[in-house]
Amino acid sequence: MSSITITGKLLNGLNEPIVGEYVYFWVTKAGTDVAGNSVYPKKVFTLGPSDSNGDLPSDEIWVNGDSGVESYYELRLPGNERVDMIIPSGTTGTVDLSDMLTSYRANSSTQQSTVLSSAQAYTNTLAADPSNNGSFAASPWRTALNVEDGADVTDTANVTASGALMDSEVTNLADVKTFDPADYATANQGDLADSAQQPPVEGAFVDGDKTKLDGIEALADVTDTANVTASGALMDSEVTNLSDVKSFDPTDYATAAQGALAASALQGLSTDNIVWVSKGGDDSTGARGRLDLPFLTVTEAEAAASSGDTILVLPGDYSAETLGGKDGVTYQGLDGAILPAFDVTTAITIKGSGLCQAITSNNAGAVLDMPNMNTVDSIICDINGGTITAGKAGTSITRNGGELTAGNAGTSISCQGGTATIRNADQSGDTAFLIFLTNAASLTIENSRHESTETDGEVISINNSWSGSLKLFNTRLKATNVGTDGATTGITYGTSVTGTVQLDNVTIETAQDGTGVAKSIDAPSAQDVLIGSPLKVTHTVDSDVNLLTGDLLINTAYKA
């Protein structure tokens, strides 16, 4: 192992001495401390502190004793600046720091640059304060960097003299700047274009065109009949329905699939059991089973019908007629048809919608199924009156027997037997009573409102000895037109009544004046009334009325 003596000076960026600081020498390349076969441990050599002039005390550091092998150190300066150092092989004696510097590395990020001995002193000071170089002349730097005095790299003359192409020399500067060789043909393509056949004005030929031209006979005439026929064309003279062929539209015809379905479909739907009635018909030519030959009147259609037939009445007013009906015949009115008045004494069926003048049923086999049909006048279900399902009665509903289900009601409802149901009614009338029950008639009223406008009137009157049933659900009864010292009643019982009354969610509104006493329910003798939910009334019930279950709510503010 050999050693040398290191000397040096520490200066800041103002070329002022750095006092009291140290520098450290670190071995940075493995094996650089090898002499012969001996391996020396890595060592850190410390020089310092610097004196008032910035001079470091001289000290020895190891160098490689092998011939031709350099020694590598890293010099760590104050402020943690780091400088790489090389000590060539064979170096002896005393060496100044500036003679060994090869590169400057700030904060461990290596910046390689060749350092000339003539600028080394300035390099050392600039490493300490790179922002301050005012105290040094530019000449050493120009010499070190080989830059002429006053060099201006933006000077037009200098740049032009260097051989650069100036913007002012280019006439299409924008095209030059955006030049893309992909936008242009190659030189080889240009040679091919110069020798290529150019397309005619009317358009370029494509492969196969020449072959087609060669195949055309000399003086060919494509309008010659013989030539065209020989080619397989269909000639006008060969078509017997030319105009139809020329105007053919596939939407005017069924598809093959539709045709197959038609071939297998049920054929010939019979209308033999239908008798048509129309305002455009004719009784003298009308025929059973013929839609094209309808009757003018329902009366004549009925005469032509047989048991099992349906008389189908098209829209129109036929209310001037009155029919008794024919056994086994169904009468059906379409929307817009006003059927005749029916006094049914036979087992007929009436159904449909529209309007009917009046209906009277007095046959146990009659079925009047008209839930969407209204009557101008009345609906009467007489003794053995069959079944009536109708819409709205114009004036009255009379029930003597059979079964009746009506939508709305007329001015009065008279139930004298059988079973009746009134739904969704809004009935108003000035008769002595709106609803009358007698004999064993049973009546159910649902979701309805019934108002008597008669002075001191009553809404429901139960006749003497009545033995049927009365059921009211979600229904309101109102009688508020009262005279001087008068009163109104909701439900009035006769004598010797054995029938049952059931009220569920019912409101009864009555009124009284002066000495008059209004009652929601009045009875001459003890009667039981079943209450399903609270009964709301404006006036109390008679003392002879016994309310079973439920509650009685009395409040003059209740409105029906």
For the record, give the distance between the C-alpha atoms at the N and C termini, rounded to a whole number: 127 Å
Rounded to the nearest angstrom, the radius of gyration is 62 Å
What general form does the structure show?
Answer: elongated
The main sheet comes to: 19 strands, parallel
Count of DSSP-assigned helices: 11
Mean pLDDT: 77
Structural class designation: mainly beta
Tell me roughly what share of residues is in helical segments: 10-25%
Q: Report strand %.
A: 25-35%
**Total strand segments:** 40
Q: Low-confidence segments, ≥5 residues, pLDDT <50? A: 30-40, 103-136
Describe the 3D structure:
Helices cover 13% and strands 35% of the residues. By secondary structure, it is mainly beta. It is elongated, with a radius of gyration of 62 Å. The N and C termini lie far apart (127 Å). The model is unreliable at 30-40 and 103-136 (pLDDT under 50).
Any descriptors?
single chain; 19-stranded parallel β-sheet; 560 residues; 13% helix; 11 helices; 40 strands; 10-stranded parallel β-sheet; mainly beta; Immunoglobulin-like
How are the elements arranged and paired?
Layout: E1 2-9, E2 23-27, E3 34-35, E4 38-39, E5 44-47, E6 55-63, E7 71-76, E8 82-87, E9 94-96, H1 97-100, E10 101-106, E11 109-111, H2 120-128, H3 139-145, H4 156-161, H5 173-177, H6 187-195, H7 209-214, H8 225-230, H9 242-246, H10 256-264, E12 274-277, H11 298-304, E13 310-313, E14 316-317, E15 322-323, E16 330-333, E17 337-339, E18 341-344, E19 349-356, E20 359-361, E21 367-375, E22 378-381, E23 387-392, E24 396-399, E25 403-408, E26 412-415, E27 419-423, E28 426-429, E29 433-437, E30 442-446, E31 449-452, E32 458-462, E33 469-479, E34 489-492, E35 500-510, E36 519-522, E37 527-531, E38 535-537, E39 545-548, E40 552-554
